[in-house]
């Protein structure tokens, strides 16, 4: 008879008291560490925002960061990953953005190394504001000598914070980051983040067929079909990171009137989006980035709820389509029951059943509204 091995995670999920006990022990431990480290005599004069994110969530932090910058009439530094630096340069001086290389985090980017914490120390933080909210940032800031640490994270890391907020969403995913600081600073709902729409009617229409995870992606072949139809009337290109489309498919695309653009990094992505008239894609960082650059967007949604993820600036210029099935998230659900497909979806019907004809006809109406010129 084979004995089933029970993991610690299984035990925690089964026994709620064990979870509460671990949270209690960790709270005491982190509080002790903070009491010791913040008494270390060192230079402490900067406000440091820790924002370790991918593209989309980096954009979602913009409103919270604007509030923090308005609040403090002194140096505000942003600590982020290298890919996020060109994104934050859109709203913050480059010399005040501190990069921590991705390789300075271990165990699938969950644990900050000593080298990462050393970089944080060089920022001389008086106040750290955690806008990340996961183990990655907790492991980075837990032994900082900063006088105060504000922000959000998992409850098990509550003892690290002087002012702690649980992770909470209200109307939109960007609310996660404003809610993270609302407990300390008060209501910031009246803060506006205005984006000026900026596009030329004869610029490229871009198609970005990829997303943060596979289950959010409409079929690549459908995107190519859509692009070929658009390319008959408009200047149109597929934009993609390198090595994401097979060489034989790229070669076939190059033989058509549909262009293909490969961007080597986020800075190149920003440069190309900045020259487009419209971008089409999944619920992805590229769509969020385009919106903050003032470009019209058209998004294809499946297992995620557009109410929580659609760009929140100038909604007239941010359209979407979604094929609804029984398990499509309702108006109060951010993700479907499979955690947006991350936990495994049996059929992916919400995306597979959305035909190119429907997307194309809906897009043409939007293109007409935008007044884009035919080639």
Describe it.
This protein starts with 7 loop residues before the first helix and ends in a 5-residue tail after the last helix. Helix 9 (220-231) crosses helix 15. 40% of the residues are buried. The protein has 15 helices and 14 strands. It has helices at 8-14, 16-37, 55-60, 62-71, 85-88, 114-121, 135-141, 175-185, 220-231, 247-254, 266-273, 285-292, 306-309, 349-352, 356-370, and strands at residues 46-50, 76-80, 97-99, 105-106, 111-112, 125-130, 148-152, 163-165, 204-208, 236-240, 259-262, 276-282, 297-301, 318-322. The model is unreliable at 1-8 (pLDDT under 50). The chain is an alpha/beta fold. It has a 6-stranded parallel sheet, sandwiched between helices. The chain has 2 domains: 30-185, Glycogen Phosphorylase B (Rossmann fold, 3-Layer(aba) Sandwich), CATH 3.40.50.2000; 204-370, 3-Layer(aba) Sandwich (Rossmann fold), CATH 3.40.50.
């Amino acid at each position: 008879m084979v004995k089933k091995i029970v993991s610690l995670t299984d035990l925690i999920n089964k026994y709620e008291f064990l979870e509460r006990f671990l949270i209690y022990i960790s709270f005491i431990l982190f509080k002790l560490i903070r009491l010791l480290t913040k008494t270390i005599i060192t230079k402490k004069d900067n406000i440091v925002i820790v924002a370790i994110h991918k593209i989309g969530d980096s954009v979602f932090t913009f409103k919270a960061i604007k509030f923090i910058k308005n609040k403090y009439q002194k140096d505000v530094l942003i600590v982020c990953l290298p890919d996020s630096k060109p994104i934050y340069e859109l709203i913050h001086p480059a010399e005040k953005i501190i990069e921590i290389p991705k390789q300075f985090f271990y165990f699938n980017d969950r644990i900050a190394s000593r080298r990462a914490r050393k970089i944080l120390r060089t920022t001389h933080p008086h106040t750290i504001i955690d806008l990340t909210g996961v183990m990655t940032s907790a492991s980075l800031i837990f032994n900082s000598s900063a006088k105060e640490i504000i922000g959000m994270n998992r409850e098990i890391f509550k003892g690290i914070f002087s002012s702690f907020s649980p992770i909470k969403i209200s109307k939109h995913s960007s609310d996660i980051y404003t809610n993270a600081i609302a407990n300390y600073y008060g209501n910031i709902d009246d803060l506006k983040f205005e984006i000026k729409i900026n596009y030329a009617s004869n610029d490229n229409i871009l198609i970005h067929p990829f997303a943060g995870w596979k289950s959010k992606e409409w079929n690549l072949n459908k995107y190519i079909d859509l692009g070929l139809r658009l390319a008959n009337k408009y200047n149109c290109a597929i934009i993609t990171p390198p090595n994401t489309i097979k060489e034989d498919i790229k070669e076939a695309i190059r033989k058509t009137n549909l262009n293909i653009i490969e961007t080597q990094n986020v800075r190149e992505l920003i440069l190309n989006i900045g020259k487009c008239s419209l971008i089409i894609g999944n619920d992805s960082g590229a769509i969020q980035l385009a919106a903050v650059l003032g470009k019209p967007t058209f998004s294809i949604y499946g297992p995620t709820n557009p109410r929580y993820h659609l760009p929140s600036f100038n909604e007239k210029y941010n359209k979407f389509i979604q094929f609804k099935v029984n398990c499509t998230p309702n108006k109060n659900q951010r993700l479907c029951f499979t955690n947006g497909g991350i936990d495994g979806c049996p059929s992916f019907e919400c995306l597979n059943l959305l035909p190119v004809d429907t997307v194309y006809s809906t897009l043409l109406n939007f293109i007409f509204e935008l007044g884009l010129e035919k080639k």
